[in-house]
Amino acid sequence: MIDPSSERLKAAVLALYQARPVEGPPGDDGQRSVWHLSTQGVELLSFVDPEGRVQRQELTLLDEHCVWSSGVGLRTGRVEQDGAVRTETSVVHPDAQPVPARLLRAALALEHYQGEDRYIQHIQRVLALARQGLVLSGGTGAVAVAPAAPAPVSPTPPVSAPVAPASTSTPPGASAGAQTPLPLQLPVVDPVMLQRQKTEGLTMLIVLGLGLLVSVWLLFWLL
Predict the structure, then answer these.
(1) Which ranges constitute the DSSP H helices of the chain?
(2) How far is CA 148 from the centre of its chain?
């Protein structure tokens, strides 16, 4: 289990931010992979459809793994590897249920990112929503973050190279729908609804304030 405050994780995440993405060729379904690799044990693998929308992302943080799929949500797992650096023989063992602690550690690891890489921003937002859902639910159960229509991502100019990412239990070139989704227990966190609730509350405060000002003005006018 990783320690999100450890110097090793901080250095590995920083190296991920500085890594240049490597874009693979389109597959039979038109999807292409974009791979961010930190040589210190952190990597991000993204699958993008022909319209530029992120369909799936796999984030590895040392010995922990988070997978987000459009229409499915977030899942977690554990990475079994030889030595300190992930190799081609590393295997991901999915958790029977998404582990909230893994989601929180991943969200904390990426929360301070302020760069412009669209793929890192996407997984950062997904994990932030998952963290918010865990807080609202009291920190128990699994969280589904599965927007019905992923927003198009304008990719950071990648380095075109036929580099294949390290294999996991599911090969990076495989279709995102090839894996059987694990059951999720909590409702989808709807950021639009949260924003609407905040807007309605602010509007109500403004109306009450105006009503108070009008009442004071009428009182002075009558006197």
Answers:
(1) 7-18, 100-110, 118-136, 191-222
(2) 15
Note the pLDDT tens digit of each residue in 115-163.
Answer: 889 999 999 999 999 999 888 877 544 454 444 344 455 544 454 444 4
| 79: Cα separation from own chain's centroid | 18
DSSP structure class, residue 177: G
Closest-CA residue to 22 (of 32, 9, 10): 32
- Look up residue 57 and give its two tokens: 């992302």
Q: Is 132 left (phi over 0), alpha (psi -120 to 50) or beta?
A: alpha
Phi, psi of 161 (to 5 degrees): -160, 140
pTM of the model: 0.60
φ/ψ region of 150 (left if φ > 0, alpha if ψ in -120 to 50, else beta) reads beta
In this structure, which amino acid lies at residue 41?
A: G
